[in-house]
# Entry
Amino acid sequence: MKQIEIKTLVKECKYDELSETDRRLVDAAKDATVRAYAPYSKYQVGAAILLDNGKIVEGSNQENAAYPSGTCAERTAAFFAASSNPGMAFKKIAVAAWMDPGKDKNPEEGFQDNPASPCGGCRQALMEYENLYGDIEVILYGKDKIFVLPSVKALLPLAFTDF
Ligand code: THU
# Structure
């Protein structure tokens, strides 16, 4: 049987190594965590999307007492971006996740050490916009390291795209 190898190119870097644009997008994703509504998981996620017109659109997770009715930060940001800027390409998305480190701690410590990575459903939702407008660079923030992927495809090999 023939074998197909699927490779994913992931760049790893530190915040200071990012371009100014990417740092601004990561900062926006980190800021958006403050606006999460996550009383159940206490896991506050922020996402920031850079649109082709230079605008940055943010979203955060919004939970619900009926758990599956809540939404992730990435989908909140994607749907907000698409519904408020129809037809505008998404160029990049940054994601960050925060949990309260406790009082007397620097709030910055609450950010996850490892890159915050979108769930499968959000990868699929973002893929829809990538198919419409072209590759969306993905920047996953972690305090210790940041991952940068060239596209949503890279996060979702063998994706379902049409029927
Ligand atoms: N969450 C996100 O917002 N993005 C992800 O990619 C993973 C999970 C949210 C959903 C829920 O509100 C909380 O994090 C715990 O799963």
